[in-house]
Write a structure and sequence with these properties.
- The protein is mainly alpha-helical.
- The protein is built from seven helices and four strands.
- The chain has a domain of 57 residues.
- The strands form two sheets. Strands 1-2 form a two-stranded parallel sheet. A two-stranded antiparallel sheet has the order 3-4.
- A hairpin with a 2-residue loop joins strand 3 and strand 4.
- The protein is globular, with a radius of gyration of 17 Å.
């Protein structure tokens, strides 16, 4: 079995962005639950945001592998267009995120914190790479597994692992969140739909 190629530069940049978010959240007193509870009785600290752990262990490594295998297929024009669209998608996602009525490390009082702004950059890169992967390259059987990994990450990022019994300090109810299920369903349609398109196109 051949070793899996990884773009270590991509992985280092993405993981660094997550680590910086964690450091800033700690500085701001919003990393651990104990820190957060000194500031507010309800919310979600950085350490309990499952999406951040998904970024570290799922999304960043996945994107680094994609870049290693696919970067030679992408022109600078493709990369520039994907960068603009990725940033727009990230800004749109975080604009919705601002509507959260409780405090989190990324959003407080309807505004992005510095942690949230760093996450805008992270997701802009992520959306750009995924856009290039699905739109500017050919089919490989691994696209199905990639799509599954992306959907799993979105499930985790929407706190579905909390189930019906989230921490007392977290007022959200993930399993009842229409927006959460829409995000999961939309991601599944886009990723698996794109994969199926490439598969049947040959």
């Amino acid at each position: 079995m051949e070793p899996i190629l990884v773009s270590w530069r991509t992985l280092s940049i993405l993981e660094a962005l997550v680590i910086i978010q964690a450091m800033v959240a700690y500085r701001d007193g919003f990393f651990w639950p104990s820190q957060m509870l000194e500031r507010t009785s309800k919310g979600l600290p950085f350490a309990m945001h499952a999406g951040m752990w998904g970024d570290v262990f799922i999304l960043s490594p996945l994107l680094a592998v994609i870049v290693a295998y696919r970067i030679e297929e992408w022109s600078w024009t493709h990369i520039m267009i994907a960068g603009v669209l990725g940033l727009a998608a990230s800004l749109g996602m975080h604009e919705q995120y601002k509507g959260i009525p409780w405090q989190e490390a990324h959003v407080q009082n309807g505004e992005l914190t510095f942690v949230g702004k760093i996450h805008v950059v992270y997701m802009a890169v992520a959306f750009s790479i995924l856009g290039l992967y699905y739109l500017a390259g050919g089919y490989t059987p691994y696209m199905w597994w990639t799509s599954l990994a992306v959907v799993i990450h979105v499930v985790i990022g929407n706190h579905m692992l909390f189930g019906s019994d989230p921490p007392e300090y977290y007022p959200g109810r993930p399993l009842e969140s229409v927006g959460g299920w829409q995000a999961i369903g939309g991601t599944a349609v886009l990723t698996f739909g794109s994969t199926a398109f490439h598969y049947f196109r040959g």
